[in-house]
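Continuing the batch. This is chain 6 of the set; chains 1 through 5 are on the previous pages. Same settings as before, nothing changed between runs. Recording input and output for traceability.
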Amino acid sequence: MLVSILLGLLGGLVLLAVAVAVCLMLATWWIAAKSERLVPASGKFIEIGGNRIHYVETGEGRPIVFLHGLGAQLHHFRHTLFGRFGEGYRLIALDRPGSGHSVRAKGATGRVTEQAEIVRQFIDKIGLAKPLIVGHSLGGAIALTLAVEHSKAISGIALLAPLTHMEASVRDKFGSLYIQSPLLRWIMAHTVAIPASLKYAQRTLAFIFAPQATPPTTW
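Output for chain 6:
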């Protein structure tokens, strides 16, 4: 009798866990679909080594490529900087693999050296002649990697609050983002990651912009 009760409780807990996981997956799908409607792809796509890269460009002249940071996307440059350049520049911003509308290749690691190589191939594929690379935060680390490993492909780099040094450990605020297991990363990405990011969005923005106040949204 006791065994039957325990098995029934265990079965109920399993069903509850499955129901919660399904609800989180549906919520993630709904949020993703809504996000794509609110911020649709606005540029072009190009295939590079299995990566589907989304990018926007405007103007003609000296090429400048913009690389965004962690958790960002190309609009962070497009809406803030593109309008400040005059004539004589070809401005290109791309969603790094796995960010924005860019899809990372199956088996890709996302390592800085790997992303730098993708950017180098991107430069070749769309026919840019030694562009200036602007890198923000993690994008700054990729820009530095390009300068070290692919210096002939670029004319120079401009760094905005860049990540410049290897750190011995993951900082506390970023600990939840460091998940070594590919399976666990997949599970988190398709269940709790997106709903949790929305719940803590304002707190995350306050942390990112601190000690300054979060700027008002204008677009």
